[in-house]
Fold:
Amino acid sequence: MNVRRKSVHIVSRSGGLYALSRVDVSRLFYPSTAEANAAAAAEPKTTHGGGGGNEPGAMETTGPLPEPIIHYQPFRPAAAASSDRPTATFALLGSTTKILCSDAAGYTAVYDARARSFRAMPRRRWPKGPKCASVQIVRTAAHARADLEFDPWGCVDHDFFGEELRGEHADSSLAYYPVRNWRWRPLPPPPFAGVDPGCTPPDDVAFAVTGGGTKICVSSAAATYLFDTVAREWSKAGDGDWVLPIHGKAEYVPKLGVWLGMSAWVPHSLCALYLSAAAADMSGPPAMQHVRLDIDPPEEDWSPKNRALVNLGSGRFCIAKFCRTMDVSDDGGNGQVVVFTGVEVVPGGANGLSVVKHKSKCLVADGIEHVL
Structure:
């Protein structure tokens, strides 16, 4: 990702209606790295809940959630997040301006924020469960050669798209074919998706795209597997049972050759992973470097609920940390605050890289579910 993003997409829900808003995150960054370092040096060193920049109410807000650019009403409403029933899925598709929306019935559409238009996509036969993860890969020459060997005339047989595996474990990829346009293409399920009785699905899917998009490294609750996106085959990563030590997706930083992710362990700090060996079979867990970065909630009565890492390009990232508050929301539950922090990864430091923290701002909104 070479183009630097200036905004992120916020997906919020109220009842059965979803709203997509765009939040400007360029305000999370100082004009230069030097100014960010100077501001950090001048900031009082305080503990959580103490004085200075961590005093209750001291954090600057982004203001109210911007007016939605679209509303999306699923054909079938999503089940509660705590349920094992299918839910709606939202993911970036191909660029930062296109968002794929798929409801609990499998009906799928793509919204183009630049063209301000929707495009209907083929329906997925089997919707996904609440623990699904969307992975975007860049098509390579290896993918093109594999498709050519399978179908030299470019006319994919309809029977090839027949999905035999049913339910939420029916993995599939959305691919474009010149003759038949967009189609869902079935993929073999991961070994831990209810197929191998000895494998346990993870509560939080940890994954990373490696090998220039030719492999996806995914962890179950007790082991890690590699999916070859060219051969469309699963294999175990090495002989040992180990897992990626992160929550969610690890984002690649090309100029430093490392992957950045949120640690799976409290306090869920930012960490760097060295996954270059993942293009081949890994014999052991990747080396991990914890990065000094304080993103604890600034209020004593805010408790962490979830977190997300959004790659803005050019070594810049936005960390979104979801927190519960003691306030009562409209639905009778606890209120929610999302803390956005701008960080920049630069060369230097004892291990070859360092992370510069820029600014943090909070957004008070109860219905936010996704930051894309």
